[in-house]
Design brief:
The structure is a single chain. It contains 5 helices and 7 strands. It has helices spanning about 40-45, 90-100, 125-135, 150-165, 185-195, and strands spanning about 10-15, 25-30, 65-70, 75, 110-115, 140-145, 175. The protein has a 7-stranded mixed beta sheet, with helices on both faces. The termini are close together. About 40% of the residues are buried.
Length: about 200
């Protein structure tokens, strides 16, 4: 399946299980820490400046947001985790929402996209999210964002640290990416289109 990621529209936000979309279209679930640039990655992928909300303060995505790509598949923006300055009750609500999405009987996720910061070792939260994707049985693509912040000589050691921390297997996909410059965009689009063709 080939997808035109420039043809995307916001469809809905789900704050509870009843709001999840179950129309049989593939779903690419994007997850990442609140300050990792997830919205910027999504906007770069879709060729838009502000389709996904880019907040001045992290943690603005508090629901599960659906974007319909080329009328054929959904890009699903999951709530960011980690840094957001919100109450424990609100964090617990996000956690329950995410859990119900991951555990939905319909197996909603076609491919998981975990966004990490290439400059840092993945956090315990990143490892947890990676394990959620793995346990849900869906293929996963790890996107190492902020590539433009590293010198070329730093890239491979940084990627190796991510591979080791997340215990990535030979077949697992790891894409160096720059939401700022667009590096890695074509490879990520190719992998997502391939995932639809399975």
């Amino acid at each position: 399946m080939s997808l035109n990621f420039n043809k995307a529209e916001f469809t809905r936000s789900a704050a509870a299980r009843s709001g999840f979309l179950r129309d049989g279209r593939p779903q690419f679930a994007f997850a990442g820490r609140s300050n990792v640039g997830k919205s910027s990655v999504i906007n770069r992928l879709l060729g838009r400046k502000n389709l996904a909300y880019v907040g001045a303060s992290p943690g603005k995505t508090t629901q599960i947001n659906y974007f319909l790509v080329d009328q054929q598949a959904y890009l699903v923006d999951l709530p960011g985790y980690g840094y957001a300055k919100v109450s424990k009750a609100e964090k617990d609500r996000w956690g329950r929402l995410m859990e119900s999405y991951f555990q939905d009987e319909g197996g909603l996720i076609t491919t998981g996209v975990l966004i990490v910061d290439i400059r840092h070792k993945p956090t315990a939260d990143d490892v947890t999210m990676h394990n959620w994707f793995r346990e849900s049985g869906c293929p996963e693509i790890v996107v190492a964002n902020k590539l433009d912040k590293l010198k070329r000589s730093q890239v491979e050691p940084a990627l190796e640290l991510i591979r080791q921390t997340l215990e990535l297997r030979e077949e697992d996909r790891l894409v160096p990416f720059s939401a700022e410059k667009g590096a890695g965009k074509e490879e990520l689009i190719r992998l997502l289109c391939e995932a639809c063709g399975q």
